[in-house]
Structures are given as structure tokens and as C-alpha cells.
Design goal:
- With 291 residues, this protein is α+β, with helices and mostly antiparallel strands.
- The protein has four helices and 16 strands.
- The strands form five sheets. A five-stranded mixed β-barrel has the order 5-11-12-14-13. A three-stranded antiparallel sheet has the order 1-2-3, covered by helices on one side.
- It starts with a strand and ends in a 5-residue tail after the last strand.
Length: 291
């Protein structure tokens, strides 16, 4: 199963969009149409890469837009770039989401005590290759971190690309601790402090910031897949989420999007153009004293 992307608008501008197509050239939603599993029998999942490692632009699947393209997040009308909180440069993993998952904001998690953040479940891919924005890769799950972000549960799955040279040696969270010493501690440090430059408090974690193992992580992912199933079958309130899809819903569903509709969505966005310069402030270090 292969997917390609089509860029629209100008990178690092409000007009930028990255749309997805399947092998037949049909536009698809990376939220709803790309299957969760690459190999269900082996618990191998698809991951949509939103942010390549070392970059700063906060790109994400636009859950409220038709076809859910990747676009750059904004705050008060300004494009968001994560700060380099010393000693971290941008994102320290390939960052993205598992399709066909949803952290239900009406469901209070029994482990964390907080409701979901209304997004697909996040993934930190820790392999050796720097991915490209929009890559759809197959990942092996290793563990999960339970971040509490402004009163919402925000799971962070730790995974590795199955095609990575190190994938054979990494099979659980304990292997990451043994073979990549410091990486998990740095991951907690990154998530704890990345909003501090914006004047916000440090993020908190369930389980005292301890990573849970592979089996626990897979259970969490499967739970979010079940929440997504309720969403796409209209058993759960979608709120502002856009559930239009071209491959999952039956043609009589209000969520069904025809190929013609999908083409109209894409052609209604700005044509592809040159990327805008990244503000020089994005290269600065930010320092703060950890509590």
C-alpha cells in the first residue's frame, strides 16, 4: 500500500497544505482513509509523518478541514514553530500520528484521569533516518508516554520504522533504554518544556513520567482506534472535526466524499508556490531552569 502527496500553497505560509493520494491516484484523508494497520497480525501500524526530525515548523493533520491535509499550526493568526529548548534542536524524532485513531475528548481515561485531546494518537519515531513530511511509514511500537497537556490526555507512542537497520534490535521500551541511553529521558524533558518559551507552565505526565511498555502501548492504540470507529460511524459526536473520507464510509453516509468533491476541495486551495523564508528567530536557543 503506497501513498503520495501533493503540495499546495507556499511552505511556511498560511496557505500551505499537503494532500494525500492513494496508489490509484485518488485523494484520501490521512486521518480516516489510510488504514491503521500495515500488518495487523504483527501489530505493525502505519504512521503519517507530520514533522521530520530536527525541524521546527509545527505541522499537523488538519482534523477540522476537508480531506484533513497537513498544514502548519497557528496561534493568534501566526504560524507556530517550536522553540529550541536547550539542548534540543527542533523535534528530536520524526513526529506524526497513527491514522484511524482518535483520543475522544468525552472519554475520561482510567489510567490518566483526563479526557482525550480530540486528535489522532501521536507517534515519536526514533529510527536513524530523517523522514520527509507526508511520508507514510510502517512502524513497530515500543512503548508509550502519558503526557497531560493543559488538562487533556495526550499519549506519545514510541515506535521505530520497521525498515530501519536498528528495528531488529528494538522490540520493547527496555531495549530503547539499553541501546539509546538518554533518549527516553530527553523525550520527557522535551515534552515537559516545549511550551515554556510561550509563557506556559511545564507539561505534566501520568505514571510519574515513566514509559509504559509495548503491550500497554498497543492496548492504548487499539482503544483510540475503537473511539475512531465510533466517530466515523456517527456513534460519537464529531464536534468541529471533519470526517469526510473517500474510502471508508458508504456512499449514503454524510461523511462520504466523492472523487469529484475531493478534487474540488484541493483545487479550491492555493496553487503550489515557492516556500517562504523561515524567521531567523526560529534558530535561537531558549534556556530555562528545570524545576
Amino acid at each position: 500500500m503506497s501513498f503520495t502527496v501533493e503540495e499546495r500553497g507556499n511552505l511556511y505560509s498560511l496557505s500551505y497544505r499537503l494532500f494525500f493520494k492513494n496508489a490509484e491516484g485518488k485523494y484520501v484523508s490521512p486521518f480516516h482513509d489510510i488504514p491503521i494497520y500495515a500488518d495487523e497480525s504483527q501489530n505493525i501500524f502505519h504512521m503519517v509523518v507530520e514533522v521530520p526530525r530536527w525541524t521546527n515548523a509545527k505541522m499537523e493533520i488538519a482534523t477540522k478541514d476537508p480531506l484533513n491535509p497537513i498544514k502548519q499550526d497557528t496561534k493568534k493568526g501566526k504560524l507556530r514553530f517550536v522553540a529550541n529548548v536547550f539542548p534540543h534542536k527542533g523535534y528530536i524524532w520524526n513526529y506524526g500520528a497513527i491514522p484511524q485513531t482518535w483520543e475522544d475528548p468525552s472519554h475520561k481515561d482510567g489510567d490518566t484521569g483526563y479526557c482525550g485531546d480530540n486528535d489522532p494518537i501521536d507517534v515519536c519515531e526514533i529510527g536513524s533516518k530523517v523522514c520527509s513530511r507526508g511520508d507514510v511509514i510502517k512502524v513497530k511500537v515500543l512503548g508509550v508516554l502519558a503526557m497531560i497537556d493543559e488538562g487533556e490526555t495526550d499519549w506519545k507512542v514510541i515506535a521505530i520504522n520497521v525498515e530501519d537497520p536498528e528495528a531488529h534490535d528494538l522490540n520493547n521500551i527496555s531495549d530503547v533504554r539499553r541501546l539509546k541511553p538518554g533518549y527516553l529521558e530527553s523525550t520527557v524533558d522535551w515534552f515537559r518544556g516545549y511550551k515554556v518559551p510561550d509563557g506556559k507552565p511545564e507539561n505534566q505526565f501520568a505514571f510519574n513520567g515513566e514509559f509504559k511498555d509495548k503491550d500497554f502501548a498497543i492496548k492504548v492504540i487499539k482503544n483510540t482506534h475503537n473511539f475512531w470507529k465510533d466517530l466515523i460511524s456517527q456513534k460519537a459526536d464529531a464536534g468541529e472535526l471533519n470526517c469526510k473520507n473517500t474510502c471508508v464510509s458508504a456512499s449514503d453516509s454524510p461523511y462520504y466524499c466523492s472523487a469529484e468533491e475531493a478534487k474540488a476541495v484541493v483545487s479550491g486551495t492555493s496553487p503550489s508556490g515557492n516556500e517562504e523564508p523561515i524567521p531567523s528567530s526560529v534558530d535561537k536557543w531558549f534556556y530555562y531552569e528545570r524545576k
